[in-house]
Structures are given as structure tokens and as C-alpha cells.
Amino acid sequence: MAARDYILGRIRWSLGRSSFEREEESLLNARMSEPKANLIPKRAQLDHKAQVSLFVKMAKEVNATVSRLKSVDNIPRAVAKYLKDHELENTVRLAEHEALQGLDWSKLDASFGVSYGDDLSSVVMAYAGAAETGSLALLSGAQNPTTLNFLPDNHIVVIRAEDIVGDYETVYARLRRESKEKDFMPRTLTWVSGPSRTADIEQTLLLGAHGPRNLHILVVDEDHGEEG
């Protein structure tokens, strides 16, 4: 018996239920196979160009910084510029994503792999972005270690403009579709909206309380010029 089946069986036993009723099981299967979308904010129902602009605007409102690039080849230069502008070391830990591995990182002290807590800056690839809140969807896996999203102080995230959509539900629908095609679901999907923050103590906003102090987003759009 799989651990999952054992745990669910114990839960059913504690509730005094030996198994699902046929009608309940049918309803659950239908919900899983054809999930219904939640409410979708009207502000994100725009054409794609406007969605990208909204994403940038909303990301900046939650204390992220954003640069737009016209080519993936410009990513290392943009990372180097960010580190220099903020007087940071030029050492950076990179996710082992194919889009990053093929670039020229020779101007930086760059290495690939997971972080063990001693990296100040990291670069990862986003799976998608939701314009409604300027949030990034990050998937766990060998190509994007989750440690790079939480341990370094400076979190640099690359996202292709084509992966920016209006709302969360569109991202979930894409993930379900692709996971079904590949017969594989990532262990973790992390939503990131700006740097880590808390206002638990005297309602004073503190950045970097539970993760990165800074979030810099590089939006790669072949049809858009570069800007800081």
C-alpha cells in the first residue's frame, strides 16, 4: 500500500467513513478532471501587450525592480549591471536552466546549482507571470532549485514576455495541461510577489524577513527595446 493511500485511509477511518460514497467519488473525479476557474479580476483582461505593461507596473508597486530586454543574450550583461549598480559582488549562483546555461557568463563569477545559504545573489527562470498582481510563478526541479528562490539576499528572475498572462487561473490551466502531457507534476509551485516582507512587528514594513531582500525581474521581449 502506498503511503498516500495509507494516510488517506486513516483520515477516512477517523471520520468514521470506510470509503467514499459513489456520488461523492463521482463529483470529486469530475472536479479533478475538469477544474473550474476562480474569479478573474477584470483589470487583467487585456491584450497581451497591455498585460505585460500591467505586470511591470504591479511588480514595481510591490517593491520589485524591473528591466526589459530585447534578447536572452543580454541577460548576463543585465545581471552584471544590476550587481554593479547596487555595489554587490559579481558572484552569482545560477539555476541550471537550459535558457541560462547557453549564455556567456564570463564577465561574472558565475556557478550553477543549488544554494546552501552562502550565496548573496541568484538568477532563476520563471515559469510564468500573472499581470493581475505582478507575481511570478516559479516551479521547483533540477532546472530551478527552490533554494535559489529563498536563500540569497538578491533574487534575480528572468521571464519571457510570452509567458506573462493576465491571471493566476491561466497559469494553473497551463500547468495542468503541460503536466498531463508530460505525465509529471512539479513538486512545488511558488508564487513570488516582490521581495520577502513582514509588518508583524509594530506594523513596520521589513524587507528580507523570510527570504530575499531584493527582487529584480528581467523581462525578455524580442519586440521591445531595452530599458532599466
Structure write-up:
32% of the residues lie in helices and 22% in strands. It has seven helices and twelve strands. The protein has helices at 3-14, 22-33, 48-61, 75-85, 98-101, 147-150, 168-182, and strands at residues 65-69, 91-94, 109-112, 121-125, 128-130, 135-139, 154-160, 164-165, 189-192, 197-198, 206-207, 214-220. Strand 5 (128-130) and strand 6 (135-139) form a beta hairpin. The protein is α/β, with parallel strands linked by helices and 228 residues long.
Could you outline the blueprint of secondary structure elements for this entry?
Elements lengths: L2 H12 L7 H12 L14 H14 L3 E5 L5 H11 L5 E4 L3 H4 L7 E4 L8 E5 L2 E3 L4 E5 L7 H4 L3 E7 L3 E2 L2 H15 L6 E4 L4 E2 L7 E2 L6 E7 L8
Parallel strand pairs: 1-12, 2-3, 2-4, 4-7, 5-8, 7-12
Antiparallel strand pairs: 5-6, 6-9, 10-11
Q: Uncertain regions: pLDDT < 50 for 5+ in a row?
A: none
Q: How many extended strands?
A: 12
What's the overall average pLDDT, rounded?
A: 88
What's the order of the H and E elements? HHHEHEHEEEEHEEHEEEE
Structural class: alpha/beta
Distance N to C terminus: 55 Å
How many helices? The count is 7
Instruction: Tally the structural domains.
Output: 2
Radius of gyration: 20 Å
CATH architecture of the largest domain: 3-Layer(aba) Sandwich
What is the CATH level 1 assignment of the largest domain?
A: Alpha Beta
Residue share in helices? 25-40%
| CATH fold-type name of the largest domain | Rossmann fold
Q: CATH homologous superfamily name of the largest domain?
A: NagB/RpiA/CoA transferase-like
Strand order of the largest sheet: 1-12-7-4-2-3
Percent of sequence in beta strands: 15-25%
User: What is the overall shape?
Assistant: globular
Largest sheet: 6 strands, parallel
Pfam families: LUD_dom
InterPro entries: FTHF_cligase-like_sf, LUD_dom, NagB/RpiA_transferase-like
Protein name: LUD domain-containing protein
Domain LUD: 128-220
